[in-house]
Amino acid sequence: MLTPRRRRRLWWLLAAIGVAAGLAAVGIRYPNTAKKEPTVLSDDGPSSVYVQPKTVPLTGARKDAARQVARAFVVDAVLRIDPAAAWKLVTPSLRGGTAPADWREGNIPVVPFDKNVLKGVKWNLWYSYADRVGFEVGLIPKPGRGEQVTKFTLEMNEFGRGSHGHWLVSSWTPAATLEPAPPSARSRLSESAYAGPRGQLSAYWLVIPLSLVLLAVVLPVCLATREWRRGVRAARAHRSGSAAS
Questions:
Q1: Is 118 strand, coil or helix?
Q2: FRET partner for 234 with CA separation of 20 to 30 A, picked from 16, 71, 109, 152?
């Protein structure tokens, strides 16, 4: 059974723990109320803001022209049927500083696929903007070869408009090394990767250790205050007794 003195000590201890926990929670919830200065990333000029391109359906003659160039690129460059002919199908960035003579010899910066193993090609539209498109390309091997479907991403840029427009391949990348989403979606993913409530919720796990630290400070203060009040009451009682006698 708790004596009155022990009950008072217990209430003091619970009060101290509650105060410490409250201070820890407030410190986590409102770590700094001062205004933060914006971080300057670069002073080389005005900052650029990414604007997602508007999706434009790939239809009609544009679709036919793009698919024709894409198929010719796979046949001539990827399968190495006629690498020299693929020179005119790619952008300068994809050529990577190579010369037509390199392409005639088959020394090209394009990941190849063995034509003797290929059974078929599966195409899937990845994205379509006003002047560029992307395809997911699956190269299907023949049965019994013991190989799986190899997936690539093929990106193209359109130069010119109407009858003067033409498509060039700008990228041929193994899908295993590229996120299966268009550039705009990859940008959104990188911006939101560290946002959200998960990081805020995890911070509240710090309440317990911070409460213990604060308790080590608050509890002695509470005990000292209690002893001081006892001393004051004892002094008053002594003076009252002396006066009565």
A1: strand
A2: 16
